[in-house]
Design brief:
It holds the Pfam family CSN8_PSD8_EIF3K. Helix content is 72%, strand content 0%. By secondary structure, it is mostly helical. The protein has one domain. The N and C termini lie far apart (47 Å).
C-alpha cells in the first residue's frame, strides 16, 4: 500500500497520532526517501520548514527508542545548508551530542538558559 506523500499535513498527522516512540520512528522512517528528494548538497529545493520539522522529529524519535548511533548517522543525511541556518535542527543535534557524550546536565543548562532569556 502506497503512503500519502510527505507534506506538512501528513507530518502533523503522523506526529500527533503515533501511539508510541517506536511507531513514530517507523512512520517517519518511511518518509526519509521523500525528504531526500527535497534538497541537494548545495540547496534546499523543497519546503524548508517541512524538512526542519521532519528531520528534528525523526532524530528525536531515534533518541526515544535508544538508537543513538542511527541518530548520529541521520545527521549526515540531513540537508547541510538547512542545518547551517535552522535553529531547531541545531538544537536537536546539540541534544544528540549531549546524549552521545552522556552530558545531560550541560544540555539542560544550555537549553533552559536560552529559553529563560527569551521571556
Amino acid at each position: 500500500m502506497a503512503l500519502p506523500p510527505l507534506s506538512k499535513e501528513r507530518l502533523a498527522e503522523v506526529l500527533t497520532t503515533a501511539p508510541s516512540p517506536s511507531a513514530l520512528y517507523d512512520a517517519l522512517s518511511h518518509y526519509e526517501p521523500d525528504a531526500n528528494l527535497l534538497f541537494t548538497d548545495s540547496e534546499v529545493t523543497g519546503d524548508a520548514e517541512l524538512l526542519s520539522v521532519f528531520y528534528s522529529s525523526y532524530l528525536i524519535s531515534l533518541l526515544l527508542i535508544n538508537e543513538t548511533p542511527e541518530a548520529r548517522m541521520l545527521t549526515h543525511r540531513m540537508p547541510p545548508t538547512l542545518v547551517a541556518k535552522d535553529q531547531t535542527l541545531q538544537n536537536s543535534i546539540a541534544l544528540l551530542q549531549a546524549v552521545w557524550q552522556n552530558d545531560h546536565v550541560q544540555v539542560y543548562k544550555g537549553h533552559f538558559k536560552k529559553r529563560r532569556s527569551r521571556t
